[in-house]
Amino acid sequence: MNGKKLSELLAEVKTLEVKGNADVAVTGVVIDSRQVKEGHLFVAVRGSRVDGHEFVTKAVELGAVAVLCEELPAACAEGVTYVRVANTEQCVGEVASAFFGYPSKQLQLVGVTGTNGKTTVATTLYNLCRHLGYKAGLLSTVCNYVDGEALPTVNTTPDAVTLNALLARMVETGCSYAFMEVSSHSVVQNRIGGLYFSGGVFTNLTQDHLDYHGTFENYRDAKKRFFDLLPNDAFALTNADDKNGLVMVQNTKATVKTYSVERMADFRAKILECHFEGMYLQMNGKEVGVQFVGRFNVQNLLAVYGTAVLLGLDAETVLVGLSEMKPVSGRFEAFRSQKGGYTVIVDYAHTDDALTNVLTAIHSVLEGNGKVITVCGAGGNRDKTKRPKMARAALKQSDVLIVTSDNPRFEEPQDIINDMLAGLEDETMQRLMTDEGKKVVSIVDRGEAIKTACLLAQKGDVVLVAGKGHEDYQEVKGVKHHFDDREEVRNAIGN
Hints:
Elements: E1 4-5, H1 6-9, E2 17-19, E3 25-26, E4 28-30, E5 40-43, H2 56-61, E6 66-69, E7 81-84, H3 88-99, E8 108-113, H4 118-131, E9 136-139, E10 144-146, E11 149-151, H5 160-173, E12 177-181, H6 184-188, E13 199-202, H7 210-213, H8 216-228, E14 235-239, H9 245-248, E15 255-260, E16 267-275, E17 278-283, E18 286-290, H10 295-310, H11 315-323, E19 333-336, E20 343-347, H12 352-365, E21 372-376, H13 386-396, E22 400-403, H14 413-421, H15 427-435, E23 439-442, H16 446-456, E24 462-466, E25 473-476, E26 479-482, H17 485-493
Parallel strand pairs: 4-5, 5-6, 6-7, 8-12, 8-13, 9-12, 13-14, 14-15, 15-16, 20-24, 21-22, 21-24, 22-23
Antiparallel strand pairs: 1-3, 2-7, 9-10, 10-11, 16-17, 17-18, 19-20, 25-26
Helix pairs in contact: 3-5, 4-10, 10-11, 12-13, 13-14, 16-17
């Protein structure tokens, strides 16, 4: 990419001091000093673990011609331009967006936020648009895509520089649409700063990430801020069935639209039939068969349908396209044991609300006297307060609960399991186990837990393996080991 004048990149930035040539040519923008090359602008961001200001000298040694910082170094290098601002994290998005030619303004960019459903909504929108013949991009937890090209992902929402680089590639490839998951972290950390959204979608809100946000109110407000920042020519599509749905759009300048399964809304649906293979729905008065299962997926599909229509796509064409969409990998993904006659569901559910939704969906299609066996754990070094809630939610709708390891990270798996089991010690949970014969087992080894669940399952039963979904690793003591729930399930059922 050709260089751009530093002054052009700072057009939307309030500077406090400029020391050096403001018109120096910049050939790249980076926030990681290790990636600096000759001609780059290095932005010193104060991160949660590392302060970029400690690496200004290193960045200059590697060839940075300009530095954006909050405090000037004791000794400024000759020939290098230093720009001081109040908060680098707040302006890196604007700088990156300017460098890459404001790519978000050249696309119909839609952000999807909420606790659960982000990946399903964003990915299905991406798949739908491509299925209908449009070029599109996707930024998600599972993988990033520039039209058909898959690019690995690290965070739900990449940093501002990576984000704009990916959007610029989408523009170069001829994409008309881009869909991205917007995490609460990315809003707080200004990773989406400088982006222009055509629309925003809210799925739902339940407790998660309190290890980072501290309180549920902070978490909610982080999500809400995304809608507060939408421009007045954008749309804000919100879930009217969620108690925070209308809270999210209270102060938005965007045009508010709603979707619902329970009440009047701009986009409505009801379930006519439901099986493990899919559902038959009525959506805004039209009947459609889909390959998704569960009420929570009806809401996800309504979000997809509403977004597509608000983007200007033909409603009838969208419904036909939805009937041909498949669920996202690791989201209510069903495996049938031919020998045993039972079904295994692999799902990413890793909150109490998500577990409730998936188990409710299973019970809605469970036939006869079939039992439900649930395998789940909780991630280490994350919100500990949700662990007992997850165990309670799982046991309420399961006949057998096997508590196991998830991604323990730097915690001991047994300690995490103990935190979950503590949620089952009250009188209500004990009564469930006594009166209804519900059983609870803990098996630290996740592979053994899945195998045990499948050995316990009989004809007509359903095994839910929850928590990891699409992930193909387990993180233990900072090391990622290959582990895929879907592979373990296939091996256990002998398919």
